[in-house]
């Protein structure tokens, strides 16, 4: 194409016209760009949306905003009118909102496609036909095609529950007065968060449970890490014989199913017939109220977690120790370094590079260790000053009790949202400042 033809094309605003037509109706811009099959495909898509999805989307969004308008009607114990179920309306509305955002995303892609093809026309370049467009999408968008199903699953199975839980925190969904379908649920804004941080009973419970959760997560992580490191370093010494035997012995707690070990320890800690107290009494010592005294209950859960958790770290550190060059230790011995100095200046810095990221994940895991706490103590012993929580309850077990046992869904969701923000912020900050995650050594 000669320069005069190119100049005439540049004088026309194909891109803006095509984009404007696609804004008016999907596919018109593509037809304007003489991509008729592509335009027909986009137009069919919008027609399907208009015919089949506009009404459900509008109904869902209305339900999400109002959370229902008709309460259930009963006469003489019979349900005359089932009414609206606020929580189901919220779930349906959230799904419709996600669908609407997806449609708007495709709508944007349609306008952008028409605009870019219009730019090609302005510069006098060839407009690809339908077959060339399909081939180009397959070649350049192959990676996106592969990850799209996984992204959709993540959206529905991870993002949707998180957003749904967060939305409940801004309602009054709770027992006994606001449980659908008998009663409607309303949006109350940040009322649950205000209750959580201003009402004395809720604030005291939250601060007490939160402080113990932090203590539990930190101590349980540090104990298993340094116990595993200690055992791994000791077994790596030349003076220790039968190292394979010792390692197999120490790995047994990790090989046994965790819930079995927890239930066994719970019986061992029993104040009346537990084997630990019987052993103490046999040597003339007083029995210890392991699970009935607040301090001893916390000691018991930490010791049990230590027993269950250190074998993993022992195995990890054993593998890391084998990668450290022996020449470093030989050079240190020549310089007169003691075993403690070798550990402090050689072993510890190297193993921590591999351990710190896993320590962050272990801290986050222990922060939310519902199964262990619930099987071990069920949050007990009871604390009369707490709302629905005991002395060993962590935030997640407290949420569990508030929801399944007491129906306090709204404030439990508020606590869950606070926990999520804390863990997400902590993990992001630590991983961002971890050398091994940056690729630095």
Describe the model.
The chain has 441 residues and is an all-alpha fold. It folds into two domains: 14-188, no CATH class; 192-434, MetI-like (MetI-like fold, Orthogonal Bundle). It is 72% helix and 2% strand. It has 19 helices and two strands. The chain has helices at 3-10, 14-24, 28-32, 36-66, 86-122, 130-140, 142-168, 191-198, 200-235, 243-255, 258-268, 275-282, 294-321, 326-334, 339-367, 370-376, 395-405, 409-432, 435-438, and strands at residues 73-75, 78-81. Strands 1-2 form a two-stranded antiparallel ribbon. Strand 1 (73-75) and strand 2 form a beta hairpin. The longest helix is centred in the first third of the chain and has 37 residues, at 86-122. The protein is flat, with a radius of gyration of 32 Å. It starts with a helix and ends with a helix. The relative contact order is 0.08.
């Amino acid at each position: 194409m000669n320069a005069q033809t190119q100049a005439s094309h540049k004088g026309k605003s194909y891109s803006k016209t095509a984009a404007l037509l696609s804004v008016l109706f999907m596919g018109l811009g593509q037809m304007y760009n003489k991509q008729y099959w592509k335009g027909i495909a986009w137009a069919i898509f919008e027609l399907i949306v208009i015919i089949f999805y506009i009404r459900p989307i509008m109904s869902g969004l209305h339900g999400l905003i109002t959370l229902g308008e008709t309460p259930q009607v009963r006469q003489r114990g019979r349900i005359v009118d089932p009414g609206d179920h606020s929580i189901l309306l919220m779930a349906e509305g959230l799904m419709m909102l996600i669908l609407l955002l997806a449609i708007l995303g495709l709508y944007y892609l349609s306008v952008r496609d028409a605009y870019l093809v219009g730019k090609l026309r302005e510069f006098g370049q060839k407009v690809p036909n339908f077959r060339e467009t399909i081939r180009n999408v397959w070649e350049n968008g192959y990676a996106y095609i592969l990850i799209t199903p996984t992204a959709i699953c993540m959206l529905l199975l991870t993002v949707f529950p998180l957003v749904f839980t967060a939305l409940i925190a801004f309602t009054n969904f709770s027992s006994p007065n606001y449980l659908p379908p008998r009663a409607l649920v309303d949006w109350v804004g940040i009322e649950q968060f205000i209750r959580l941080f201003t009402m004395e009973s809720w604030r005291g419970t939250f601060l007490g449970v939160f402080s113990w959760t932090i203590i539990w997560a930190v101590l349980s992580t540090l104990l298993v890490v340094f116990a595993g490191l200690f055992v791994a370093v000791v077994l790596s010494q030349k003076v220790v014989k039968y190292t394979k035997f010792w390692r197999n012995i120490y790995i047994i707690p990790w090989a046994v199913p965790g819930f079995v070990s927890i239930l066994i320890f719970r019986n061992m800690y029993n104040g009346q017939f537990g084997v630990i107290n019987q052993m103490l009494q046999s040597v003339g010592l007083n029995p210890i109220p392991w699970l009935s005294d607040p301090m001893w209950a916390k000691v018991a859960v930490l010791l049990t977690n230590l027993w269950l958790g250190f074998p993993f770290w022992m195995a990890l550190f054993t593998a890391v120790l084998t990668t450290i060059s022996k020449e470093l230790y030989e050079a240190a011995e020549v310089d007169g370094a003691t075993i403690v100095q070798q550990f402090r200046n050689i072993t510890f810095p190297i193993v921590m590079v591999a351990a710190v990221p896993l320590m962050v994940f272990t801290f986050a895991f222990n922060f939310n260790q519902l199964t262990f706490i619930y099987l071990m103590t069920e949050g007990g012993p009871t604390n009369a000053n707490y709302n629905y929580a005991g002395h060993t309850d962590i935030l997640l077990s407290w949420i569990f009790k508030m929801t399944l046992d007491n129906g306090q869904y709204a404030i439990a969701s508020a606590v869950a949202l606070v926990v999520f923000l804390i863990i997400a912020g902590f993990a992001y900050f630590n991983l961002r400042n971890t050398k091994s995650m940056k690729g630095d050594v």
